[in-house]
């Protein structure tokens, strides 16, 4: 999920945390879970569901993240003003799970999508070892604006679409849904062994869309899977959609135009854009902005 400075949260609800890698675990062909600890996590307050935070990953060749400032008023300008080769990479990720262990330690899991050395986050995660430290801006209160999953009170069904970049967020949402919640979900992944075993108390019907098994264009493949599902009896469904921006726009149109979902009950987020690097997206967001001015960016 690409971070922009507009994702930098309000100081009352968010602050800097130092995270230390405790362990890593491969979940599938494309997924790696990194478990972080650290004393500062005692003040971390995830709101669950699709809670996000901003990670600052050290440049290649550095083990730990170093920022010139973590002050609430000066960190962004100081970070942006760093030489490019020294500037930590800022990326937004989902808190997959937060817990306190039996010995009283606080831990946070973050799931990364691995695609070799083609991106700084994938490269860092693939090389992560216990003891390495990074900085993050994360929630200090559980009710915060970075929890985007907010179904209306009268919702009678949850409909979800996520590609691999949004699957950790979708999985975290499923974790929190209560028994009896009707869920229809479509999850797109690159490889057959990326079909994860997801736990939920909800009554969830999950369709996996595996790209490697079909030569069609990705958006067409997703829409065909959605249309094959047919109608449902839901009266007031809530749709949560996240992934590649162009595909998300098409999926949103499907739900609003073909399934007559109230557009106000569709929460959609473009985590990335096909053909554009994360650095290009950030450059677009920063264009014409002063060094201390947070850009606003919509994928």
From TrEMBL:
The lineage of its organism: Bacteria, Bacillati, Actinomycetota, Actinomycetes, Kitasatosporales. Transmembrane segments: none annotated. Coiled coil: none annotated. It comes from the Bacteria. It holds the Pfam family FAD_binding_9. InterPro entries: FAD-bd_FR_type, FNR_nucleotide-bd, Riboflavin_synthase-like_b-brl, SIP_FAD-bd, SIP_fam, SIP_rossman_dom. Gene3D superfamilies: Nucleotide-binding domain of ferredoxin-NADP reductase (FNR) module, Translation factors. SUPFAM superfamilies: Riboflavin synthase domain-like. Residues 14-152 form the FAD-binding FR-type domain. This is NADPH-dependent ferric siderophore reductase. PANTHER family: FERRIC REDUCTASE, NADPH-DEPENDENT (PTHR30157), NADPH-DEPENDENT FERRIC-CHELATE REDUCTASE (PTHR30157:SF0).
